[in-house]
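input
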Amino acid sequence: MIIKRNIYKEIVNSVESKPVTLISGARQVGKYTLALMFKDRGFNYVSLDNSRDRELATKDPEMFLAIHPWPLIIDEVQRAPILFEGIEEIVNKEKIKRNDNYGMYILTGSQMYKLMNGVIESLAGRVSIIHVLPLSRNEIIERDEPIFDFNVKNIQERAMKNPLKPLELFNQIVKGFYPELYSNYKSTIQKFYSDYVSTYIERDVCQIINIKDQFLFRRFMELLASLTGEELVYDNVAKIIGVDKKTVVAWLSVLIAGDIVYLLEPYNEISIAKRIVKRPKIYFNDTGLACYLAKLNSAEVLQASSFSGRFVETYIINEIRKSFVNNGTEPNFYYYRDSNMNEIDLVIISDGKLHRVECKSGISFNNSVVKGFKQLDKTEYKIGAKVIICNTDTIYPLDDDVYVLPLAGI
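output
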């Protein structure tokens, strides 16, 4: 079963308006499947996972591109970054012949640093970059996916049509959102993630940096998984793993390059600069991978653990983030924490407004939960929504301007 991807329309727009489209994202998020859909539009296909093709592309990129003419899909293009120069030359020549030299190349790859270096140096202005994330819940249940906009009426309607009970939520968090887990019913969660981690470390990680101790790197990944939704303190991680801070920074850059994790930076305005915490928070792009690494192997175990709140927070922020990315919009997401321990899980800047979001796994709350909201009342932006997103079934007001929203409505 192939699940319809909401990001597909953005890829179509890119192919129809740019000479080169780069589809980036972690391994197994569906880049190959999305790219292959364009064979029906006359695109040829070649994968640099094939050793012969990779060798030719590396040693003689001109010959490779002559043998494989455009329109062309090149899968795993980061394995031969020298191709970018040849593609640039072909695109430029075609531009001289005609102005609408669109839809010449579709490139896919899973190592952002190698990809972006090549794109910046050779294809700037000629390429559109499409970032593919794991499946969203909206895609899994075949529901429309507008950008999350805090529309109370729409959120309630969506939650009522597709409710999400707590145990079902935790089951989904543990399972994660990689397409194969939904399209291949013979694929078990433990086997999928075991193979995923082994392949990722042995192939992607070792291609980027020289990892002398793969077991130590795996321990590093496991520790970060247990910290999803937490502030990242490099010195603490280094001490626990037994490496220096520079190694932690280098290893983290690898996980970011592979789209395994992302950092949420602290929100800052001049009026609050002196009192805010300046460390980022770390989140895993997929909760299932984080659960596997943190050894939280069932919904019941996760729900009863001290990790439950942070994994629900990771789920909520990821789903909101997917709604932006799948509609071709770069999310402006931050968090807030100051020296007085006032906190806001998620600060969203959208349409000139500042929205404040608390992410919770419970149902009932009091005003102490949102005491940090007032710290941004004097923002330079227009005041947007102030909400708690949680396991509630129905929307209800916490006070005059704070609403509690069901996460099923995202």
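quick obs: DSSP finds 17 helices and 14 strands in the chain.
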